[in-house]
């Protein structure tokens, strides 16, 4: 993509990159605010798995659109792939540990179907 | 480490059966270095062999197929859901007013085989406003924490969404036998492809 007509496509790529940067920044901000505002451990884990992951994906996509080099894109794809695979597992481990060690108040959860007979 | 596994011929066969892992590790190495050259590919392959030999993992018990179209449906739906879920959670965090009210919902999946249970659990953590707190391999029940139970439409809606996600996963990756056992009619694609390639007693080892 380096020596395509630099006019139109560059403008399009830059515009999309700008939109993605703003959206990614909004999501990352949301993740940060949620981490502070949400009352419980489990609710906080939601901000780690959803807005944070997509925010990062959008920011990196924007970066790839701006940098336009395949070696950088390869690295960014790796970051996204590992983020998608690891962040649910990490959130699950934290949530499960918190749940099992009593850091989660079961009364906050209505309904709480955990521990009901199958 | 049994003495048998140290025999070179045995090790070679083992490596041959793990060529997926080797190829993937080599690809990751090349991507990390950022350019495709023989030196990188060879170094990556050597390191992949070293990693696979030094950190052996049990084989994944997954005799499925990949159906291209359902896989595309699964992927497209996943991306769309990821956008919706992310903006929802971010908005719930930022908007003024009380924070939402959470709950734990138990969902019994149709197919408790490890590979599909894992894929469904990971995807449901990322996507529909839920987070896996606990998963029971023996019964195939997944306990999901839902951030906003009222906004998600109650426990029944969460169960329905999760089962729909599982159905997309199964349609994309599971064999026809598994689909039939789960009460899903095999899709129009590839009905005659591999009927009976998997023994119907594929599970039963779920207790751990």
Which short descriptors sum up this protein?
heterodimer, A: 118 residues, mainly alpha, elongated, B: 208 residues, 2 domains, 3-stranded antiparallel sheet, 9% strand, disordered C terminus, membrane (chain A), PhaG_MnhG_YufB (chain A), Multisubunit sodium/proton antiporter, MrpG subunit (TC 2.A.63.1) (chain A), sodium:proton antiporter activity (chain A), transmembrane helix (chain A)
Describe the structure.
The complex is a heterodimer of chains A (118) and B (208). Chain A contains four helices and no strands. Chain A has helices at 8-37, 41-49, 51-67, 70-100. In chain A, helix 2 runs antiparallel to helix 4. Chain A is elongated. Chain A starts with 7 loop residues before the first helix and ends in an 18-residue tail after the last helix. The relative contact order of chain A is 0.12. The model of chain A has no long low-confidence stretch (mean pLDDT 81). Chain B starts with 7 loop residues before the first helix and ends in a 27-residue tail after the last helix. Chain B is mainly alpha-helical and 208 residues long. Chain B is 52% helix and 9% strand. Chain B contains seven helices and three strands, in the order H-H-H-H-E-H-E-E-H-H. Chain B folds into two domains: 3-54, no CATH class; 68-181, no CATH class. Chains A and B meet through helix 1, helix 2, helix 3 and helix 4 of A and helix 2, helix 4, strand 1, helix 5 and strand 2 of B.
Question: Summarize this, please?
Answer:
Chain A: Pfam families: PhaG_MnhG_YufB (PF03334). The complex is a heterodimer of chains A (118) and B (208). Chain A is an all-alpha fold and 118 residues long.
Report, as a whole number of angstroms, the end-to-end distance of chain A.
56 Å
* Class inferred from helices and paired strands of chain B: mainly alpha
Return the structural class of chain A.
mainly alpha
The backbone outline of chain B, from C-alpha atoms, is: globular
Strand arrangement in the largest pleated sheet of chain B: 1-3-2
State mean pLDDT of chain B (0 to 100 scale): 75
Q: What share of the residues of chain B does DSSP label as strand, in percent?
A: 5-15%
**Average pLDDT of chain A, to the nearest integer?**
81
- Separate helix tally of chain B: 7
Low-confidence stretches of chain B: 188-208
What Rg of chain B is obtained from the alpha carbons, in whole angstroms? 21 Å
Number of helices of chain A: 4
Q: Describe the largest sheet of chain B.
A: 3 strands, antiparallel
Question: How many structural domains does the protein architecture of chain A include?
Answer: 1
Residue windows where pLDDT falls under 50 for at least 5 positions of chain A? none
Task: Count the beta strands of chain B.
Answer: 3
Taking all Cα atoms into account, the compactness measure Rg of chain A is 19 Å
Shape of chain A: elongated
Number of E strands of chain A:
0
List the helices and strands of chain B in order.
Answer: HHHHEHEEHH
